[in-house]
Amino acid sequence: MGTIGIALPNLPGVTPPLIPEFARRIEAGGCDAIWALDRLVYENPDPLTALAAAAAVTSRVRLGTSVLLTPLHSPVVLAKQLATLDLVSNGRLLVGLGIGSRPDDFAAAGVPFAGRGGRAAEMIRIMKQVWSGQPVRHQGRYFAIECGAVGPVPVQHPHPPVWMGGFQEVALKRIARIADGFVGSGGVGPAGFAAMWERVRQMVAAAGRPPDRFPNACLAYFNVGGDREQAKAQAMAALVRYYGPQFTSRYDPERALVFGPPEECARRAQAYFDAGVQHLILVPTTLDAGQVDRIAREVRPHLRA
Q1: Strand, helix or coil at 33?
Q2: How far is it, in rounded angstroms, from Cα 197 to Cα 203?
Q3: Residue 103: enclosing H or E segment and its boundaries?
């Protein structure tokens, strides 16, 4: 069996104790990672701040962004923030990056929506310079930066792993060239992931890199509940609020959502592992921290190797 991570709630209504409570339960439940999603124009917590809070109350689990909307940030500032998070967590950070798909997030950040893929790729090159601890010298299409060394240097050497998400062909090619791993979308389901992962592996090989040393993860939204239809309806209400009403036209909960009684959740989660997912990122659709305990105690025991 692969490994399991659980995301912090990416929902409105988060109260002060909720993020530390989720983080403690995720680690105590034997899960392997805590993840934070990113969105700007929504009432969700900032992912880096949330992960810093999680780092303060945990010691073992990895901490990941899945995925950070890279182009909305300044590359040097973002590199410093991520290096600091790697430092305060003692080298537990996994940097998941994406380019974003919602124009309102870009408008709010004052960043052009067009060219966001190239901007993100250029930012990664800059951030790796920052993480080296050397002066930064970069002259590119989107950024011209010349400055001294920016600390702190990350605990992980030469830098935290950089995984990237995406589903368009051009994005997958970019991932194969410059990323350290792949993060699959939460809407494709196990079969969709399997097809996409095979394509990524082909592109990694074409780039002259060993596919067997290129890890992957995939998101799946979840809601554990004894009444399967109620669990599905509750999850879908949260997802429609997050993505908008058009979400129902492209997302099939019977195909992609992990929901229902524990045994059914296990069957649905197992389908992702059977499709080649190495690390499954389960994303809650409620603010109930008890959902974490149910995954740990009632779902994981039903998963098979």
Answers
A1: strand
A2: 10
A3: helix 103-109
CA distances from 254 to 39, 187, 220, 285 (A): 25, 11, 12, 15
To the question of pTM greater than 0.70 for the whole model, the response is: yes
Domain extent for 116: 3-302
Q: d(Cα 54, Cα 20) in Å, to the nearest integer?
A: 6
Indicate if the alpha-carbon torsion angle 20, 299, 290, 67 is positive or negative. positive
pLDDT tens column, 18-75: 999 999 999 999 999 999 999 999 999 999 999 999 999 999 999 999 999 999 999 9
The total number of structural domains in the chain stands at: 1
Spell out where the chain has E strands: 3-7, 33-36, 62-65, 68-69, 93-98, 136-139, 144-147, 162-165, 181-184, 216-224, 258-260, 279-284
Distance of alpha carbon 162 from alpha carbon 157, whole angstroms: 12
Helix (H, G, I), strand (E, B) or coil at 141: coil
> Kind of pairing, strands 144-147 and 136-139?
antiparallel
Domain with residue 297: its CATH number is 3.20.20.30
Entry field: residues in the chain: 305
Distance of CA 118 to the CA centre of its chain: 20
Closest CA to 45 of 78, 11, 20, 76: 11
